[in-house]
Amino acid sequence: MAELMVSVTTESGAVTARWQGKSQSMDPSAVLAPTFAEIVSKATAEALPVVHDFCALEFFNSATVSAIVRHLKALGERQVAATVRYDGSLRWQRTFFDALAITAAKTGYLTVVPVSVPKG
Description:
Blueprint: E1 5-11, E2 14-23, H1 28-46, E3 50-60, H2 62-77, E4 82-87, H3 91-107, E5 110-115
Parallel strand pairs: 2-3, 3-4, 4-5
Antiparallel strand pairs: 1-2
């Protein structure tokens, strides 16, 4: 079982966070706070949008969902555009991100995009 890893880079005109592994912590905010701070800092300092790529994420619990939603809301409050990409073939990802897409449609700053990920 791979622990959660989030790598943050600046590429193609965006601050990109790639999520991998599993997030099962009961307090993921403590672990994710420095990463989220880095993302917000880079995005605001360089006036760049943010891309969160969850395609390689294997699992996250409800506590992680709450932390992600708070982070996305904080980006919106700073008027930072964000795109969330997820593996549309994974039912568990589709369930959460389809619900997030409904909320995103009302915000004007957040886009949620299913991606076809090659298997193999």
